[in-house]
Each structure stands twice: as C-alpha cells, then as structure tokens.
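ENTRY TYPE: paired fold submission
RECORD: A
CONTENT: sequence, then structure tokens
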Amino acid sequence: MINRWNDLKVYEWIEKERVDVDLQNWNGGRVGNLIPNGYTHYCKIMNSTFYRDQGIQDETLFWSQFHPLDHEIEIDLGEGITLKELAKKYSIAYDKNISSHAIAKKLGGSPRYLIYPDEGRINLDVLKEMTKVLAPFANNKTCYFFYHIMKLIGRIPEDEVENGHLYTGKLSDIYTIYNKGELDGLASPTYWWPEDRSWCVSTDYDLDFTIFGGNKQLFDALMFNDKLECIEVDLETRIDE
C-alpha cells in the first residue's frame, strides 16, 4: 500500500551523495550531479523509443518550420525507432555521450517526422520492463518514491506542491502514484530506490532519459533487456546539450 510521507529526511542521502552543480565554474551537467556517486555501475535508459509520425513523409522538414500558430499539429504515431537506429541512420557516434540533441546538432534541426521521448516521464511500457528487471533485486523491500517540486507543478493543486512529495510502498506501488494526480498523473518519480539503497533511479524533469545506478548484476540485467534502450555511462558523462 502506498503512503505519503511528510518527513523528507529519508531523501536527504541523495543530495549528500551527489555532486552539487558549481555555477561559478560551470563545465556542463554530469551524471554525478543527478545521482548518488557511490555505485559501481551506471547507465541511462531512454524514456521511450522515438516514434515516426506517419503523416510526415518529407524527412528533411524540421519542427522549427511548424509553428503551432501557423500549422495545426496533428500526429499519427507509427513505428518505434531507437536512438541506436537513428544514430546509425545519421552516422552519429553511438557512445555514452549520445542523446536526442545529437540528431539536431548533426542535421541542423529536429526532424518533424520524429516524435521524441517525453522529458521527465518514463513511458509505461518501459516502466513495466524496468520494474520487471528490478523486482528480484528489490526482493519485496520497502521502496521510496520522491517527486521534486518541478514534477508536481500542474499535476497537483498548487497549495499542495510544498517542497516535494515522498511516497513509500513496494516496488509495484509505483504504478499507483504514476497515475495519481491531476492531468496525466504524477508519472515518473524524480528518484526511486529501495530501503537498503542498493540501487537508485533518477528521472529528471527536463531529460528524455533516466539514469540508473547500482551493482554490476543489476546493471547487466538492464543492459541485456532487449526491450530497453540502455547506454552505459559514468559519473563524468555529460547529460546536457
């Protein structure tokens, strides 16, 4: 059963064990700025595949050419396309630094025929695969689900936003809070982890991928799941454009 906790102390370890962003000496956002630094293995997991808009045949068109005030945006979702497939198509290096931004950088804009993964929200099918992999390692332990204030705005009444929300329950309870709230639900927690802190997952509100930290066994289980697009990273890997 999912419960809301008002005491955020059980979340504080994450802030203590990640690297603060140094705005005075800015050198880019890193994996280590988002997630605790004490794990042996890290990877990023795409929040979903890309999707082809079947209504757009001309692949040379960019999103920047379709202003909402001038064009009625209609989307006809077609086949899913992985970032790896797109990297191969556009001759982009598929390594730890690969991201959606690499496509626009290579082409000079974001192709209109592509529907990108959601920022800050793990696709439900991807979430199901992730929890399927995590379940044996969670071993029915208590799990915590923390939502940063930026994830709550527009999803719950303004007077309830406060400093963030923390929920506790079993791993499977993530589906309850995923659908809880106004509009499209609370969706993906900013952070979720088991009580023994043996792994941690971070879905930042403005990234279209999720960061995982944990041991090699769990890392391998995620990396070898053919329904997830996982890319190995390290604490110094850039996460921004």
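RECORD: B
CONTENT: sequence, then structure tokens
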Amino acid sequence: MIFEDYLAIKNLIHRYPQCTDKGDFEGVGKLLGDATMGELDHEPAFLGDGAEAFTDIYASVVRKFPERGTPRTRHFIGNVIIEDDGPDKAHAESYVIVFQQTDDLPLQPIIGGTYFDRFAKVDGEWRFTHRTEDMELIGDLSEHLLRDMTA
C-alpha cells in the first residue's frame, strides 16, 4: 500500500462522521453505498442496496434538529490503524466517541466504541465494503435516535 492509498482510506474513515454530524445523510449513503454494515454479534445488521438505501436508513434512525438540520453531534475518531490486505484491499480499526448537546441534553458523550472497516480500491478509488460497529459504551441516546435500535 502506498502512502496515497493510506491517506485516501483515512479520509474515508473521517468523511463518514463529517457527513453524519452535518446531517448529510445523502453523503453517508454515497460513502456506504457499496458496503454492508453489521454489529459484532449480528452480522450483517442491515444491508444497504446502494446509496439511496443507506440514505433512507440514516434518515429513519437519526434525529435532525430543525434549527440547524443536524443531529447536533460531533464524532471523534482516534486510534486509527489501517492495514494492507493485498492488492487493492485493506482493513482498519478505529475508536469513536460521539458527543451531543441539545436544548434538553447538556454536552456529553452519548456513545463510544470501535469501527471495524473493510475497503477495496475500485476503478482507482477506495470504497467502504463493510463496516462493523462495536458500540460498547452507551449513554443517553434519547435525543439522538428516532427509534430504539437495541430491540
């Protein structure tokens, strides 16, 4: 893997929270449109059949506040480890902490965990092929989710 590949993958990892925090669920859909998503014990938790399906999934789950059109969150990604899996394939592991503040919720971490991602280089561009989320630190999600995802 050359340095440009490493940077492209790292940018994908960081572009996801940028889109999410801005309430750009269409952008999230484009990023994940070629991927599957799962949780450690329930793989895959859901499949998006293209960008539009992932856009719809996020819009149906994550609350946007009307004054800004965003979820009023900030995702912080750290401890990113990207490893080469051979020609045009890679995987990564990164930590995530999500903070949120609303009129009814003081600024606080609401969720923390680890992303396990897989990537492939297709037509010269890196893409997500799979994301597994292990969200083991759960705080107050009452202002974040439109529906209970634990059921």
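NOTES ON RECORD B: The longest strand covers residues 108-122. The first helix runs from residue 3 to 22.
STATUS: closed
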